[in-house]
Automatic annotation (TrEMBL):
Domain DUF4340: 83-264
Name of the protein in question: DUF4340 domain-containing protein
Pfam families documented for this protein: DUF4340 (PF14238)
Length: 453
């Protein structure tokens, strides 16, 4: 590319940037009126002093009756609407601040039509228990950042309000609905989630809460039984589940078949505090999905990115190993190969754990490092019926636990590259033969003894 063409591209990019900057500055221009350090509020009323609020948008109207026990919708059943959203809206209307004053009322060199305030897009009225109704208006929005012009009824001062406040005040009635598919959970409330089951295109995986015999907080119960590493489970399952909230209401009376929800691609079942919640999902156009709660039959849409964790194969949720045991739960570890065996005894607690192999004694750090490598057994795939072999195990690991239980892992060759893993007689996964060689190498290095090949 020639130098002249390169400069043309650079100049074009700078020109575009300058255009956007000028638009932004023009929109926010105060025409000589800078931010005031003591900007007066647009509204400042105790919520308790307001009896009702009337909101009129160009598309719909919302009437709110305020009671000590909650907020009622005027001429509309309040069931299905979020008291939390309604309360936040009411508070914002009663306590609205401006980012800046664009024009004080005494200015004469401007027209309200410049800001869309001659024919406002929204009017909001506060009806107090005593005194006169206070009303303010919203005008044009900034197409760049979403901020908006505003003025009160009897004063032509033009204010600029923030994008967040604009978004809050211009919500439609449907945006105030309860859109949750199940009771909202915070990260510190996950103990209430007892079961999560996902069926996607005919394939099902499910996890259960409650320590299984491996001590894992959550474990995979379907299609195979397997402990889940907590960090992996939280990042790949729990965190996306907590964010699974639709953002757009579509209908509460349409037939599910209109949105493909009579035969959904995904069915999600969550058991929370003993109650079952079932939701259905079907792909929409673009990067969105339709969804419906079986409890409410309310149809909404949701960004595809929030649904993606349910479209993954359960193998994606596994940690670095198909077998997991806490080091502190193990009293001895034995490897058996070619008729020979080597054993390591473990005793102590916490950082005072120690291992013994013959006359060798190993401290906690050495033991923890050894345990990490020995139990790093990645899944190379799911065991299929066609992979079944009848050969003798190439190697076996025996974990004797302090509670007297024994776990036996046997590795059966399937090919030169793969072998099946039997955990207490159950064969669910394949791993790589190279993993076996690594385990033998770590054992030999740790004990100082070699196996005869």
């Amino acid at each position: 590319m020639s130098t002249i063409k390169k400069w043309n591209y650079v100049l074009s990019g700078l020109s575009i940037g300058l255009v956007f900057l000028l638009l932004f500055l023009l929109f926010h221009s105060s025409q000589g009126h800078l931010d005031s350090p003591e900007l007066p509020p647009i509204t400042d009323f105790p919520v308790s002093s307001i009896n009702a609020i009337a909101i009129n948008h160009s598309t719909d109207s919302i009437g709110l009756i305020l009671h000590p026990t909650g907020i009622e919708l005027l001429n509309q059943a309040s069931d299905g609407y979020s008291q939390q959203k309604l309360s936040a809206l009411v508070y914002k209307i009663c306590h609205l601040s401006a980012l800046r004053i664009i024009h004080p009322s005494q200015d004469t060199d401007y027209s309200l039509s410049q800001y869309g305030l001659d024919t406002p897009s929204s009017s909001i009225s506060l009806i107090p228990a005593q005194g006169e109704t206070m009303r303010f208006y919203l005008g044009n929005k900034n197409p760049i950042d979403g901020s908006c012009y505003a003025k009160t009824e009897h004063d032509d001062t033009v204010y600029l309000i923030s994008p967040d406040d604009t978004s809050m005040l211009t919500q439609s009635l449907s945006q105030l609905r309860i859109l949750d598919l199940y009771p909202p959970l915070a990260a510190d409330q996950l103990e209430k989630l007892e079961k999560l089951q996902v069926t996607c295109d005919g394939r099902t995986w499910s996890i259960l809460r409650g320590a299984d015999d491996s001590g894992s907080l959550y474990h995979l119960s379907e299609p195979v039984q397997l402990p889940l590493d907590w960090q992996t489970a939280y990042k790949k399952i729990m965190e996306p589940f907590l964010k699974l909230v639709p953002d757009t209401f579509l209908s509460d009376f349409a037939s599910p078949s209109e949105y493909g929800l009579d035969h959904p691609s995904i069915t999600l079942t969550a058991v929370i505090d003993g109650n079952e919640y079932v939701s259905y999902f079907s792909p929409a156009d673009g990067d969105r999905w339709y969804c419906m709660s079986r409890q409410t039959s309310q149809i909404c849409s949701i960004p595809a990115g929030l649904v993606s964790f349910m479209t993954q194969d359960y193998m994606e949720f596994l940690s670095n190993s198909v077998y997991s045991r806490n080091l502190a739960d193990i009293s001895s570890l034995t490897i058996s190969k070619n008729g020979e065996s080597q054993e390591i005894h473990i005793s102590g607690d916490g950082i005072y754990l120690e291992g013994r192999a013959g006359n060798q004694v190993y401290d906690y750090q050495m033991l923890a490092d050894f345990h990490k490598h020995i139990t790093a057994i990645p899944a190379a795939g799911l065991m299929e019926s066609s992979d079944i072999v009848n050969t003798a195990p190439f190697m076996a690991l025996t974990f004797t636990l302090r509670n007297g239980q024994t776990d036996i892992l046997e590795f059966l060759p399937v090919s030169d590259r793969l072998c099946a893993i039997s955990v207490n007689g159950n064969i669910d996964f394949l791993t790589y033969t190279s993993v076996l060689r690594d385990i033998v190498t770590y054992f030999e290095a740790f004990t100082g003894k070699s196996f005869d090949d």
